[in-house]
Design goal:
The chain is of the alpha+beta class. Helices cover 35% and strands 13% of the residues. Strands 1-2-3 form a 3-stranded antiparallel β-sheet, covered by helices on one side. Strand 1 (44-48) and strand 2 form a beta hairpin.
């Protein structure tokens, strides 16, 4: 059972919109940031739940001189390691969205969704008509999918990171403190 819990905690399909920062790479970047800014912060842990179903909360606050304010993260995990990784990830993503640190440019682990085999689906024709009507109202042109069975190229159904939209939605430094 623990295997599935850890596997579920480790899955991150949204990392692309958060600068490719994941549980696997965020903790080392946070430690680099702390060291570069001469900050001596430590994770604070609390135990949650009964002995048979114990989990952990991890939190940390970091003062960011460039922003003139502190950032805070408080995250949950099935063990101390997962809790601290989640806490570090939360802080690193905040630093990224506030444009204090850069996006991760190293090798990214393939998402589970990238490894899925294609499969056939059937959709109610009435639903298809509703979808086309909605797309038409929103002035969105759906991608043409060839009916040719000889075409073996898969069609991606997920939305990839839209740089133009992503940049418009990123907060700018010097915003309102929480």
């Amino acid at each position: 059972m623990m295997y599935y819990k850890l596997q579920a905690e480790d899955l991150d399909i949204n990392s692309a919109i958060h600068g490719n920062w994941t549980l696997d790479n965020a903790k080392s970047r946070l430690h680099q940031f702390l060291q570069a800014n001469k900050l001596n912060q430590e994770y604070k842990y609390s135990v949650v739940g009964p002995d048979h179903n114990r989990s952990y909360l991890c939190e940390m606050s970091v003062y960011v001189k460039q922003l003139g304010r502190s950032l805070h993260a408080r995250e949950h995990g099935s063990n101390k390691q997962m809790a601290s990784k989640s806490c570090a990830l939360s802080l690193v993503r905040q630093l990224y969205h506030l444009q204090v640190i850069e996006a991760y440019t190293g090798i990214t682990k393939k998402k589970e969704s990238d490894k899925l085999e294609p499969y056939e689906v059937s959709v109610d024709p009435e639903l298809i008509n509703e979808i086309y009507a909605t797309l038409n109202e929103l002035d969105i042109q759906p991608k043409d999918i060839p009916d040719d069975p000889n075409v073996t190229e898969p069609v991606l159904l997920t939305i990839e990171n839209n740089v133009e939209i992503d940049n418009q939605n990123r907060p700018h430094p010097g915003g309102v403190d929480h």
